[in-house]
Amino acid sequence: MTDDSPAPFWKKRLEDLTKPEWESLCDGCGRCCLVKLEDEDTGDIHFTNVGCKLLDGKSCRCKDYTRRKRHVPDCVKLTPEAVRTIKWLPPTCAYRLVADGQDLKWWHPLVSGSPDTVHKARISVQDKVAASEVDVEVDDLPEFIVSWPGKTPKGA
Question: What is the count of structural domains for the chain?
Answer without folding.
Answer: 1
